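Students often ask why inverse folding is considered easier than folding. One informal answer: many sequences map to the same fold, so there is more than one right answer. In these notes we will look at a single instance of the problem. The structure comes first.
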């Protein structure tokens, strides 16, 4: 029996560039969103592709407005730590939605007791926060504020 840790093969996942949109690094997603190695690459890939599809559809108006640019990186904008603000917020949106999808997929793992139900409620709160973060990231593409209030 060996107590030496083994490197996980889960770290080797890249979602290739989708035309205008940048590629996504599965390892960066795992680290940034604290995804455990017990989550297989296939599950991460499915969550990221699903999130990518949703975010791209939410940004279709932005894409049409900037049709003269071949890539998101080429669209002029401010930089954050040497990185395009748009690329940062694109990753933020996709990563937030990707983690929300993973949490939804795994929330039914331990619901046989009251504590499992309580845990599921906590997970759903986190899912809501992640979806809000995705929406806020998407809104930055349209220069909209994070808060929308209506006086009734």
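Output (designed amino acids):
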């Amino acid at each position: 029996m060996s107590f030496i840790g083994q490197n996980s093969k889960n770290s080797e996942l890249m979602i290739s560039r989708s035309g205008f949109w940048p590629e996504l690094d599965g390892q960066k997603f795992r680290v940034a969103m604290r995804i455990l190695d017990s989550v297989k690459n296939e599950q991460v890939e499915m969550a990221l592709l699903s999130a990518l599809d949703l975010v791209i559809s939410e940004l279709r108006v932005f894409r049409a407005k900037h049709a003269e640019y071949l890539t998101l990186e080429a669209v002029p904008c401010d930089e954050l730590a040497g990185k395009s603000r748009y690329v940062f917020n694109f990753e933020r949106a996709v990563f937030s939605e990707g983690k929300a999808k993973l949490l939804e997929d795994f929330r039914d793992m331990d619901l046989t007791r009251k504590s499992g139900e309580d845990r599921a409620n906590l997970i759903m709160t986190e899912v809501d926060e992640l979806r809000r973060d995705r929406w806020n990231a998407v809104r930055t593409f349209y220069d909209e504020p994070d808060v929308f209030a209506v006086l009734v």
